[in-house]
Amino acid sequence: MDPVSAKYIGAGIACLGMGGAGIGVGHIFGNYLAGALRNPAAAGQQFTNALIGAALAEGLGIFSLVVALVLLFVK
Amino acid sequence: MATETVVNDPIHQFRLHNLFDLFSVGGHQISFTNSAFFMGLIVLFITVFLLMAASKAAMVPGRLQSIGEMWYSMIHNMVNNVLGEEGKVFFPLVFSLFSFVLIANMLGMFPYFFTVTSHVIVTASLALFVVGLVVVVGIYKHGLGWFRLFVPHGVPIVILPIISVIEIISFLSRPISLGLRLFGNILAGHIVLKVFAGFVVSMIAAGGIIAVSSVLSLGMAVALTALEFLVAFLQAFVFAILTCVYLNDALHPSH
Amino acid sequence: MATTETTESTGAEGGHESGVFPPLDATSFPSQLFWLVIFFGALYLLMSRMVLPKLGAILTTRKAQVDGDIARAQALKDETEAAVKHYEKALADAKANANDIARDTKAKVSAQIDGEQSVLDGELAKKIKDAEARVAKAKAKAMESVESIAGESAADIVASLTGGKTTKTAVAKAIAGIKR
Predict the structure, then answer these.
(1) In sequence order, what DSSP letters do the residues of chain C get, joined into one string?
(2) pLDDT tens digits, one per residue of B55-92
(3) Band (C69; pLDDT cuts 50, 70, 90)
(4) Choice among B5-9, B29-33, B134-138, C43-47 with the minimum mean pLDDT
(5) CB nearest to A74's CB, from C3, C6, C20
(6) Which residues in chain B are closer than 8 Å to C58, comparing Cβ atoms?
(7) Which of residues B255 and B124 earns the better pLDDT score?
(8) In angstroms, rounded to a whole number, what is the distance separating the alpha carbons of residues B187 and B196?
(9) Which residue segment(s) compose the domain that A34 sits in?
(10) How far is A37 from chain B, CA to nearest CA, in Å?
(11) pLDDT at position B43, please?
């Protein structure tokens, strides 16, 4: 296989990891919202925790994007 | 043609330009680059802005002073909530980290401005510094007892070695994840922005029906800009709060 | 299209000073690290020595001022409440006092009225009795004089009729007989 095309295919596969991060972030905010609607009084204090969780989950997806970018641009 | 490739090149924005060379240490050239210029600009901006905000010291704050106070009390409350009373020492550090990252990200949102946090060495060294500080403060405060952090309470003795190994790995991965998260978010955001902006240019150049549909690409670029502003703030905030959480491990290892 | 663009961009990259991805270019690390240490250190010093104490001072003075104001407002409120309570107590006292005075006065006045009335009644009764006694006396006297006049006139009539003389006792005896 042509090494350049292999790199691009690899980058595309690496980007699939972003989907997992998307699912994770969706779970976090969905559950946060469900909890917030059930108990709106406690929602404000937990928003920071929701953000931390979202950032942690999103960070993992970003790693796969970085891997893809490295595959694309680093020689 | 050469200008068009620059426009369409999403990597060009991260390129460093030597403004002037200073000296070399051990074969490494130390030079004043656009990155260093923007770091200076960040420090200048934060200092001047906050000093202007604090200059009036009015009992009823104006707009500028309100922003300064919100900025201050947000980090102050964060440090207080996560670290408690003894975490006060770290407040200037967390504030500096937050402000540096926030203003670096925000200045990076201006067209043709260099984004300091889009270079892995900057974010990784900030993250390494934070985790190194956690180790140093933890050992300074608790001695070797700090290593109980890796030996959680109430775990059966059989699986304790495995848990400890996992804890150590998770601790060692902190600087990587902390630095790489910020770097990756900013890098990816800027690349995606540039790609969509580049689409607009090349679609208009193509002409015809493709040129008309470049409006969609433009709308996407506008929406992404808004998202990137959110990310710029959120990543600075997350960096600061994770710093607090990690420092909490140094102060209270057996949580 | 994207592929051609990326190849184009990666191709264009090769034309620049170094073919590596700039954010991961290790040759730029020392100088970036150098300036990061300098500028971040400067930022930390500026924040911890100059900016944060100022902002913190503003916030603490405001907090102290607000707390002081709240405490003062609370004290004033307490004072007002105490004054209101005091006033209400005084009002209740005054009301009770006024009631007492009214009752006392009423009792006194009615007692006085009763006393005067009884005195007056006594006087009136005495006067009536006196008057009655006087009337009875006068009646008796009048009766007596009527008897004597009647006796005299009877003696006179007898004398003029008979030309004889009558004794007083006989006349009186006759009158008493008639009266009976």
Answers:
(1) -HHHHHHHHHHHHHTSS--S-GGG-GGGHHHHHHHHHHHHHHHHHHIIIIIHHHHHHHHHHHHHHHHHHHHHHHHHHHHHHHHHHHHHHHHHHHHHHHHHHHHHHHHHHHHHHHHHHHHHHHHHHHHHHHHHHHHHHHHHHHHHHHHHHHHHHHHHHHHHHH-----HHHHHHHHHHHH-
(2) 888 888 889 999 999 999 999 999 998 888 888 899 99
(3) very high
(4) B5-9
(5) C20
(6) 54, 57, 61, 65, 69
(7) B124
(8) 14
(9) 3-73
(10) 23
(11) 95
- Under 8 Å CB pairs connecting chains A and B tally to 42
Domain that holds residue B234: 2-251
The token pair at B193 is: 């922005």
- CATH code of the domain in which A61 resides: 1.20.20.10
Q: Which residue, among B130, B117, B175, B229, has the nearest Cα to C44 in the 3D structure? A: B130
* pLDDT band at residue C14 using 50, 70 and 90 as cut-offs: very low
C26 part of contact set with chain A, CB < 8 Å: no
Specify the residue for token string 């942690």.
A56
What is the maximum span of chain C, computed from C-alpha positions, in angstroms? 200
Which chains contact A through at least 3 pairs of Cβ atoms less than 8 Å apart? B, C
Give tens-digit pLDDT for A11-53: 999 999 999 999 999 999 999 999 999 999 988 888 888 888 8
All residues of chain A having their beta carbon less than 8 Å from the beta carbon of residue C3 are 8
Distance CA A58, CA B231 (A): 11
Domain count for chain B = 1
Nearest chain A residue to B182 by CA: give it: A59
**Nearest CA distance, B150 vs chain C (angstrom):** 31
Rg (CA), chain B: 22
Q: Please give the tally of structural domains in chain A.
A: 1
Q: Which amino acid is at B242?
A: L
CA distance A69 to chain B (A): 8
Residue of B nearest to A70 (CA): B184
- Given a contact cutoff of 8 angstroms between Cβ atoms, the answer to whether A28 and A54 are in contact is yes
Distances (CA, A) of C5 to A9, B6, B31, B137, C12: 16, 12, 32, 49, 10
Tokens at C132, concatenated = 């009655």
Chain A residues within an 8 Å CB radius of B188: 62, 65-66, 69
**ipTM reported for the complex, 2 dp:** 0.87
pLDDT at B178 over 80: yes
d(CA B5, CA B204): 15
The structure tokens 């409006």 sit at B215
